[in-house]
C-alpha cells in the first residue's frame, strides 16, 4: 500500500456546480418537468456528498466502496469522489512518552529506563491500511525497541572505552531512533528523534551499584594521584642530582622516593620528622 493523490477540485468551484444543478432542478420542477428536476436534484445531492474540509497538517484517506482511491493532503475546502468514505489522519509532529520499563542491561543488572519518541505520519495510506492502529503500533514497537537497545549495553562504563547507557547517551539515542524507525517503516511513520528521559538502577540494587560507582571513582582518583606522585618524586630526584645539591646512593634514593610518595599520596597531612643528630 502506497499513498497516492486522490481526485479533487476546489471546493468553492464544486459548490457553484452544485448550486447550478439545484437551480436547474428547481427550474425544471416549476416547468412541470418533474423527472428532469429529480435527476438534477439527485446529481446535486451526489456531488454534495463529496464536499470535504481538510485542516492544516491533516490528510484525508479516500475510499470508494472498499477501494483506496488516494489521499488529499492540501488544506481547505474540496470536492472529491461522491459517496466516498474519508478518514482523517493527522500529519502533525507528535510525542510518545514511554512508561518506565524495568529491563536488564547487557551485564544482567536490572535497570529502569524510559524514552520519548518524536514522530509524524509520512504515508497516510500505510498508516490506515497496513496496521490496525498506527498510534498503538508506535507505542508497542517503541517500547520493544527500548528494551532491545537497553539490553545491548551496560548501565555504566566500568571498563574504559566501552559504550554505556549513562555515559554515551547520544550514541544510544541514535541507535534507538534507528531501531524504532526500522520497526515503524511498515506503518508509514517517520521517527524524528528518540531520547532517553529516565535511566536508573532498580531499587533492589541501587544502593549496591552506588557503592560500586563510588569505589570506581575512588580507584580512578587514586590512580591519578599515584601517577602524579611518581612523576613528582622522579623529577625531584633528577633535579637534586643535576644541580649537584646532593649525592645520593641507591638506598638514599629509595628512601627519598618513599618519603615523597607517602607525603603526596597520604589522605592525612604528614608530620615532618627533623633529624637533629644524637644528644650524647
Low-confidence stretches: 274-280
Q: For the CA atoms, what is the radius of gyration?
A: 38 Å
| Structural class by SSE content | alpha+beta
CATH level-four homologous superfamily name of the largest domain = Band 7 domain
> Mind telling me the CATH class of the largest domain?
Alpha Beta
CATH topology annotation of the largest domain: Tetrahydropterin Synthase, Chain A
Order of helices and strands: EHHEEEEEEEEHHHEHH
- Give the DSSP E fraction (strand runs of 2 or more residues): 15-25%
InterPro entries: Band_7 (IPR001107), Band_7/SPFH_dom_sf (IPR036013)
Organism: Pallidibacillus pasinlerensis
Pfam families: Band_7
Keywords: Membrane, Transmembrane, Transmembrane helix
List keywords for this structure.
7 helices; 3-stranded antiparallel β-sheet; alpha+beta; 4-stranded antiparallel β-sheet; 280 residues; 46% helix
Strand and helix map with partners:
Layout: E1 8-10, H1 11-30, H2 34-48, E2 51-54, E3 58-64, E4 67-72, E5 76-80, E6 85-90, E7 94-97, E8 101-104, E9 110-121, H3 124-129, H4 134-150, H5 169-184, E10 189-201, H6 203-242, H7 250-265
Antiparallel strand pairs: 1-5, 2-5, 3-4, 3-6, 7-9, 8-9, 9-10
Domain Band: 49-213
Protein name: SPFH domain-containing protein
Keywords: Membrane, Transmembrane, Transmembrane helix
Amino acid at each position: 500500500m502506497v499513498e497516492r493523490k486522490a481526485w479533487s477540485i476546489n471546493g468553492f468551484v464544486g459548490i457553484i456546480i452544485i448550486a447550478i444543478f439545484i437551480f436547474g432542478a428547481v427550474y425544471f420542477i416549476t416547468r412541470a418537468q418533474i423527472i428532469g428536476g429529480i435527476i438534477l436534484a439527485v446529481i446535486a445531492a451526489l456531488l454534495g456528498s463529496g464536499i470535504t474540509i481538510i485542516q492544516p497538517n491533516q490528510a484525508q484517506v479516500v475510499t470508494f466502496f472498499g477501494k483506496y482511491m488516494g489521499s488529499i493532503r492540501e488544506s481547505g475546502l474540496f470536492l472529491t469522489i461522491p459517496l466516498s468514505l474519508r478518514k482523517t489522519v493527522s500529519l502533525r509532529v507528535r510525542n510518545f512518552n514511554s512508561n518506565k520499563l524495568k529491563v536488564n542491561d547487557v551485564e544482567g543488572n536490572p535497570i529502569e529506563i524510559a524514552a520519548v519518541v518524536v514522530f509524524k505520519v509520512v504515508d497516510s495510506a500505510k498508516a490506515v491500511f497496513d496496521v490496525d492502529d498506527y498510534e498503538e503500533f508506535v507505542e508497542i514497537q517503541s517500547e520493544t525497541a527500548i528494551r532491545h537497545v537497553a539490553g545491548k549495553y551496560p548501565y555504566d562504563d566500568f571498563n574504559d572505552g566501552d559504550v554505556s547507557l549513562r555515559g554515551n547517551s547520544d550514541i544510544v539515542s541514535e541507535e534507538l531512533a534507528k531501531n524504532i524507525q526500522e520497526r515503524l517503516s511498515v506503518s508509514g511513520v517517520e521517527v524524528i528523534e528518540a531520547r532517553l528521559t529516565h535511566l536508573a538502577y532498580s531499587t533492589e540494587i541501587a544502593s549496591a551499584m552506588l557503592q560500586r560507582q563510588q569505589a570506581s571513582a575512588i580507584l580512578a582518583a587514586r590512580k591519578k594521584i599515584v601517577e602524579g606522585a611518581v612523576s613528582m618524586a622522579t623529577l625531584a630526584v633528577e633535579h637534586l642530582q643535576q644541580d649537584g645539591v646532593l649525592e645520593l646512593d641507591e638506598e638514599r634514593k629509595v628512601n627519598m622516593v618513599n618519603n615523597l610518595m607517602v607525603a603526596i599520596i597520604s589522605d592525612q597531612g604528614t608530620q615532618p620528622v627533623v633529624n637533629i643528630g644524637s644528644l650524647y
